[in-house]
Amino acid sequence: MIFKNYTLNNTDNEFWENLDKFRIKHIDISPFYTESYFSYQVEYCKSRNSYISHESSIFVHNDKPLCAYLFLVNKNEDGTFECNYGSEIPGLIFIEDEIDKKILSEFIKQLSSLKQSFTNLKFTFPLSNKLNKGYEEIIKNFKFTHKTNWARAISLEKGENQLWVELRKSYKSVINKGIREQKILLVDHINFNKNILKEMQELHYKVSGRITRSNKTWELQFDSIKKDFGFVFCSLNNKNLLAAVYFIKSSINAYYSVGIFTKEAKEKNYGHCLIWKAIQYCKLRGLKICELDMSINFNLEDNKDEKLRTISYFKSGFGGDIYPKYEISI
Prior knowledge:
Radius of gyration: 21 Å
CATH superfamily of the largest domain: Gcn5-related N-acetyltransferase (GNAT)
Order of helices and strands: EHHEEEEHEHEHHEHHEEEHHEHE
Strand content: 25-35%
CATH topology of the largest domain: Aminopeptidase
Helix content: 25-40%
Number of helices: 11
Number of strands: 13
Structural class: alpha+beta
Largest sheet: 13 strands, mixed
CATH architecture of the largest domain: 3-Layer(aba) Sandwich
């Protein structure tokens, strides 16, 4: 079988174009793995002094992508080098059922080369892509560990009335009250407003009390919104920014990335209506999935972080289903 192999080093456009073909087939692939968010993650890791390089490869036969990996190489606190996707996010590996032995052998050879160069390869795969013979070969060829994270996502195939029914009962009056009391502003690729986004950046600094990342990461986020890879809903009162929620997106799905709230916005629960507006927007745009929580913090014995448990409980009030996200390390 004749195949082509694209990487991000010399064929950037071909790599992302073929990954997008895979995304259309597997709608549960996270918007993390887009060209826009990749650029952000590279800069974010650089700002944390952990970024080393990136590693990628995608094998294509007859214009159909059959397998790929996408990693950022980061330096851990213990001095080891790991292929992941920055911070706590795993890299991505996908292998289609139709892959033949020749391509699979070459693919595993490349993974072996990475494994020789770096301490660990941490990756996930779309749930719609079951553990076929390709993944089985990886498991057979490498010693591995694995863990399961639990994520919460809303299926936007449901009607808006059903989405409203599935909200936590106490949220409904809070959302209606929030809509009445504040001006809600959408910032997306059509309604782009750089001034509001800069105000959001300043509000983040005021709320957090410190600079958590470089200015360039913010500029990349703003640029992603301009290119329709993200959007923001803001809460305004007398032209003062009270709250903002930022979602990253692909052409298929969206992910709730961050919420920024003043003390007043928290006391009045203004974030509830902003997230509801974002869910409505995702459905209006024809997206399939709106993911709210990539790693649910349950009330487990070994989970002592009350803040993270509270955040997960808050997100659970918007409905959605819980599903597993598998993470493998070799």
